[in-house]
Amino acid sequence: MSNYTVVPRQEEAETEVEMKSYNAAETKHEGKSSTSDAAKTVGAPPPPVPAGWTARGLPVGNPRVQRDEWESSISSCLGKNDEFHSSDVEVCVLGCCAPCVLHGSSAERMGGSAAGTFATHCVPYAGLYLMGSCLFGWNCLAPWFSYPNRTAIRRKFNLEGGCEAMAGSIGCSENIRMDEVQHEHCESACDLATHVLCHPCALCQEAREVRRRLPHPGFTAKPVIVMLPPGGQAMGR
Question: Region Disordered: start and end of each range (predicted)?
C-alpha cells in the first residue's frame, strides 16, 4: 500500500515541475517576442512605397489626379489685372497682330536655354499662317503646328485639360472611366480643337501662363561686382 500511495505523489510533483518550467519558458518567449517587436517598431525603416506609386505619393496611371487650374481663362483677354497687367496687354496685342511672335516666345520660354527655339517655331508658323490665309482665306494651317505647345504646357505644369474642365462643369467627371492613355488622347484632341476654334485666345492664354510661371531664358540675373577707386587724398599741413 505504501508503494501505491507514493508513486502518484511523485508523478504529481514531476507534473507540477514540468508545468512550471513550461510556463516559465512561455513567459520568457513572450517577453523576447514583445521586445523584438518593439525594437522592430522603433528602429525599423519606413515601409517601402508600394508598386505603382510615385515618390510624391500620387498613383501612377490614375486619370483623376488633382490638377491645377490655368492662371487665366481662355476668354480673359487682358489677364487678371494684377502685377502682370502690362505683360498681359502685350500678349493680347501680339496675339492679334503677330501670333507667330507670340507662339515663338512661348516656345522659347518652354525650351529654356535651347538655341534657336524662337526661330524654329516662329518662322514655320509664319509660313503656315501666310499659306492658310492666301489659299483658304483664314489661318487654318498654323493651329495644327502650334497646338503641341499647349499640350506641352499642360503636361509640364499639370494643368487641367479642356475635356476634364468641360466634364467637371456639367458634373459628370466622376462617371468618366478612362485609363491614362485614353485620357491623354482625349485631352490632346481637345487641345487641337481649342487651337482650331479659338486660336488667338488659346495662344494668349498659353503665353500668359508661361510668362507667369517661367522667366525668360535671356533675363538670367548674374551678380555684378563693381570696384570703386579710392577717394582723393589731400596732404594735411
Answer: 1-60
Alpha-carbon distance 151 to 192, whole Å? 9
Smallest CA-to-CA distance from 114 within 152, 165, 66, 164 is with: 152
> Three-class SS of residue 19?
helix
Backbone angles phi, psi at 62, to 5 degrees: -85, 115
Predicted TM-score (pTM) of the model is: 0.65
- Gap between the Cα atoms of 209 and 203, Å rounded: 10
Cβ(143)–Cβ(199) under 8 Å? Answer: yes
Which one-letter DSSP state was computed for residue 74? T
Question: Which residues make Cβ contacts (< 8 Å) with residue 186, sequence separation at least 6?
Answer: 161, 163, 178
| Contacting residues for 200 by C-beta, under 8 A, at least 6 apart | 95, 96, 99
DSSP classification of residue 138 = S
